[in-house]
Amino acid sequence: xxxxxxxxxxxxxxxxxxxxxxxxxxxxxxxxxxxxxxxxxxxxxxxxxxxxxxxxxxxxxxxxxxxxxxxxxxxxxxxxxxxxxxxxxxxxxxxxxxxxxxxxxxxxxxxxxxxxxxxxxxxxxxxxxxxxxxxxxxxxxxxxxxxxxxx
Length: 151
Description:
Elements: H1 2-30, H2 37-40, E1 42-51, H3 57-71, E2 74-77, E3 82-86, E4 94-102, E5 107-112, E6 122-131, E7 134-139, E8 144-150
Antiparallel strand pairs: 1-2, 1-8, 2-3, 3-4, 4-5, 5-6, 6-7, 7-8
């Protein structure tokens, strides 16, 4: 009797493991993917801004101004790893920066150019996702995502 119970438990465990492997494989195929280095190169325009968390009332007016500024913004990733961010808010635009892909975090890090004194200073980190037809940029230090289109 003990051998029969052990046999059925082992068979059930194999089926369960197989089911998890199949679901994991299918889930991996349908999940969002990051943009590759070749895909990121170009100038990107913001189509839509999504706020990812509830904001206090006093921050809503500032977010409205930021949304307008982001809709006019452009992110440029050059093939030689130069980066620029055209933004209407004074002091927030970025020129003469460098981009690199960080495999550990699946993100693009933007640092000041080596021509500048603070060349190792992290200016921005962007996590990219392809979700169906949409390209999303998540700015890691903020609570917004940007739906993007390459020009």
